[in-house]
Amino acid sequence: HDINISGNTRTEDSVIRRQMLLVEGDPFNRSKLKQSETQIKNLGYFGKVDVKAAPGNTPGETDVNVNVTEKSTGELSIGGGYSTTDGPLADFTIKENNFLGTGRQVSLSAMLAAKLTQFDFSYTDPYFMDRNMTGGIDLFDITQDLQTQSSYNYHKVGGGLRFGYPLSEKLRQDLDIRWEDDNVTGIASNASTYIQEQAGRYTTAAVSQTLTYDTRDSKIEPTSGYIAHFLTEAAVPGGDARYYKFDTGGTYYYPITDQWILSLLGDTGYVHGYAGKTVRINERFFIGGDTLRGFADAGIGPRDFASEDALGGNRYYRGSLQLQFPTGLPADLGVTAHAFTDVGSLWSLDETGAGIQDSSSPRVSAGFGFSWQSPMGPLSVDFGKPLKKESYDKVQQLRFTFGTRF
Questions:
Q1: Which of 70, 96, 121 is the last residue of a domain?
Q2: In the predicted model, is pLDDT for residue 406 greater than 60?
Q3: 299 forms bridges with which residues in the sheet?
Q4: How far apart are CA 380 and CA 68, in angstroms?
């Protein structure tokens, strides 16, 4: 049989053809025909997709006719909002999902907030070298004001190459090569001596590998299934840093009913220096805020006794049990509620001394919150109360985030 494609005034034939599970010359299969139509629709490049079988020129042959209607694939968005972490913010994104009709994606984004300035550029080829493998380039420039948590400012600029491919229907592997220039500046005069020792510029060349297993029913609003990951990363020659890092975890979703969704999350990580190098502060783990509700950003973990600066930690774990349920309001308002219990700990530094407060004991919190998909953008509010903490931990019981795009 032949595959005939029409209607694609901009998109290359090959972009559509590689979504076809039917191959020219193979026996006709109606199930593969429907799956192929679904995959073409999922590209998001077409307003209408029609895939039909038709008699071929040779008796007994069945051709496949694919007719599509192109739609705009460019995105321009300007947004604003407020988060407890970064304060007032504005963001701008320009994105083309079907660059020059090749199926490649290009995006440029900027975020400006009271405590964060970030610029990103990315280029992604979902079929790198005409194989079922993604390839991409990323460039970034990030400036953070961390005075409240740790009495310093941080700037990094760099880029990376990434590659990813499926190992099976549910299992995926991603490889990343990254180089960045890091700069710790603006250290307060009364900052911890452990922070002052981090001052200055240094470079990092890192390679990482991530395995992801995903059975969720939706990547946007999952209600069943689970996603698990295992990351390994190493800072290698080519930069000043020397460390290796492991991070693994996952989230499981269970629908008690259509609207009552139970989720269970667990994560753990470890980072360690080698070749006589210690782990720099920006490569350590920080826990709190959205990752441990009821506690402030960087609210738990090693802390300087005198300055109360958060120092980060080399080991962590965290878990969360959450129940999402309806509020009783009309469903079309998009308001849901949730109750949660979070647990976690962060500990261990290369540096030691009487001036460092550090404990691996678990911290526990519980609370509730609301999420609203409002006409102006998503709004989320969480109230968490620590049930178990250390005396030097920093608490923040109320957190909210609001954003809008137009």
A1: 70
A2: no
A3: none
A4: 39
